[in-house]
Specification:
By secondary structure, the chain is of the alpha+beta class. The protein is 32% helix and 16% strand.
Amino acid sequence: MPSPLHIIGGGLAGSEAAWQAAQMGVPVVLHEMRPVRGTEAHVTDGLAELVCSNSLRSDDAENNAVGLLHAEMRRCGSLVLRAADAHRLPAGGALAVDRRGFSQAIETALAAAPLVEIRREEIATLPPPEWDSVVIATGPLTSPALAAAIRDLTGEDSLAFFDAIAPIVHAETIDMSVAWRQSRYGKGDGADYVNCPLDKAQYEGFVAALRDGDTTQFHEWERATPYFEGCLPIEVMAARGPDTLRWGPMKPVGLHDPRTGRGTYAVVQLRQDNALGTLYNIVGFQTKLRHAEQKRIFRQIPGLERAEFARLGGLHRNTFLNSPRLLDASLRLKAEPRLRFAGQITGVEGYVESAAIGLLAGRFAAAERRGWTHAPPPATTALGALLAHISGGADAGTFQPMNVNFGLFPPLAEGIGRTHRSERKPALSRRARADLERWLAGTPAAAAQ
């Protein structure tokens, strides 16, 4: 039996890495600091807790890069995708989950795995030398002591950005005489979202209220930290121009108000957040407004005048490595190769991307432990494109967090899927899935499973 692989952090990336390594016959010690030490964002002690949205975004494997990543991870035996599929909620074409059921399923599976030991303890320094194979998957909320130790080791200051959390509303407090159920363009079951309509005057008043709202103040050391463009606070978007929200999270296209039979000027959408259907989160409404301001301003939305909030929005500081400079193609730290990194700390953005890098880190570490060769996935796959971006494809001088997207994929061969723009994404997806199958056939993980 090989000596154990140590994984620090029981979020999506660490949980997925532990599962993948155990499936390859390598014992794992998974270290999770909660409840010994909490974070600014977590509310439970469960592994793989979703702290922001409950959506893993689009599940369209043909036309959306994150949907393709879902498909590739399922094909690789992902525990995260298995739990997501088992606890799926209505969300149109998106993969949304009951967050508690999702977390419990992952923790139950890992607790029952004979090769996985879960230790509840904080690792506040660099791992001891006798831990000769380690995956650090501490996420964007890495404990300050460990973050400082990593900075000392790498000689690089970790970059940072603010990530905001959207509020959650009790479903019974939504006024359904004003709001209605409909998915944009009838996707999914056609009625997966609750829609609150705003006319021009209501929208303009709402935007003005957001601009004038009282927000949390940053510490001096936080003020130069940039936001991640894919998760801007709603009030920051409102400040960028009068129509920014109307063509962002409040876009009205593909929806018709049944009271009028027509479209509306702007729409606020809410998505189911738990299996019981008692909680709904306000889609795209991550915010740094003070709690009293959130209640005042969000209750201006038609249909939410009497809304009661199960959770108000919040803001936390995320840290990540300059991975193109610091990590190699198997996610090892160049300065100390016994250490691998996985998840959001590597500079990927999003639940699925974090779990995907955990999947690869677990496989790479397990193969190394067993003396096997494990090539990285081809850059033509979603897994490979994401890995290539953070391990050297991105410009280290301007590196920022990135979601998976088709812009990270190598171009198609001349004449394949390039005649019509609508053919490009399906052609990229077909190529990716074919190349993934060839890669999987040659991996040691395939033989072990």
